[in-house]
Every structure is written in C-alpha cells, then in structure tokens.
Amino acid sequence: MDAEISLRVDGEAHRLTVDTRTTLLDLMRERLGNTSPKKGCDHGQCGACTVLLDGERSLSCLALAVAHDGVEVTTADGLAPAGELHPVQRAFLDRDAFQCGYCTPGQVCSAVGVLAEVDRGWPSHVTEDLTGDVELSDAEVSERMSGNLCRCGAYANITPAVQDAGGAR
C-alpha cells in the first residue's frame, strides 16, 4: 500500500508517494540520495542512522516514513546549510573525534540533540543534581551518547568534542 507524504529534509521540501513499509532512512538514502545517515545495524542498536526530527534525535531506521508526514528532518549534512560548520562539527574536527567516519554523522546529530536536551534541563540517568544546571561531565556525555556506537573506539575524543561544543553554545 502506498501513501503520499510531505517532509523537509535539510531545508528542502519533498512530496513523495511511498510504500507504507518504507523507513525514513531508506527514503532518504534510496529516494532522495541523502547518504549522510548511515545504515548500520538496521535494528536501532548502533545509532549510525541518527537524525533530528523536528529538533529531537531519532533513529531513522526505526521510523516509518508515513508516520512522519510534515516533519522537518535534519541530517549532519543539513546542520550548517550556509557552508559554515556547526559547532558540534567543528568540535569533532578539532578533537579528531572520528576514525573511519562511518558513525560520525549519527554521532554529530546525536550530540546536537544531547546539547539541546541539556539546554532544556533534561536529566539523564547519571545526572547528580536534578535541581541545577546539567554539567557535561564525562559520565553525563557518555550516558547520553550511549545509543551511538563507534566500532573504532573513538569515544576518548568524542566525549571531549561534545563537551567542547557544549561550552561553545
């Protein structure tokens, strides 16, 4: 069964007819040619497909496209449309927070989402003071980014990159 949907991906409007079983990840990669989000596990376990849906981080491999009609999708490619790097992207480069780079777009989108959550005062499982500002400690960043895996093990540089970007907000 097919359905017609509208969505914006990285600022560009799209109106498409899609099979109701199509994931948002497959729609972006196969129909729109946006290969920024990666297909890793295709089961929502690795985070390589992380994008921002209306500003909230989400696993696009688990999101059916038809359930996101009218949504604004932002991928790592769309974080800085004017050609300048987003502060998170800049921090990842400055801290050399990648090796093979496969997980990097998902890591970057997740980090942007993490920093937005912190700005809203959302606690995590390891947040010590629930009444004050959230400190971007190593444990806090690691907990919040735990849904994004890096097979190369670049966590030692990813965590400080997120902390740097958090200080640059």
UniProtKB/TrEMBL annotation:
Can you give the residue ranges of the 2Fe-2S ferredoxin-type domain?
A: 3-79
The keyword Lipoprotein is annotated on this UniProt entry:
no
Keywords, ordered alphabetically: 2Fe-2S, Iron, Iron-sulfur, Metal-binding, Oxidoreductase
Domain of life assignment: Bacteria
Instruction: Give the E.C. number(s).
Output: 1.17.1.4
> What is the organism field in this record?
Modestobacter italicus (strain DSM 44449 / CECT 9708 / BC 501)
User: Tell me, what is one Gene Ontology molecular-function annotation carried by this entry?
Assistant: metal ion binding
What InterPro entries does the database record attribute to this sequence?
2Fe-2S-bd, 2Fe-2S-bd_dom_sf, 2Fe-2S_ferredoxin-like_sf, 2Fe-2S_ferredoxin-type, 2Fe2S_fd_BS, Aldehyde_Oxdr_Iron-Sulfur, Beta-grasp_dom_sf
| Keyword Oxidoreductase assigned | yes
Q: What is this protein called?
A: Xanthine dehydrogenase, small subunit, 2Fe-2S ferredoxin, iron-sulphur binding
Broad class of enzyme this protein falls into = oxidoreductase
Q: Which CDD domains match?
A: fer2 (cd00207)
Matching entries from Pfam families are given as:
Fer2 (PF00111), Fer2_2 (PF01799)
Q: In which pathway does it act?
A: Alkaloid degradation; nicotine degradation
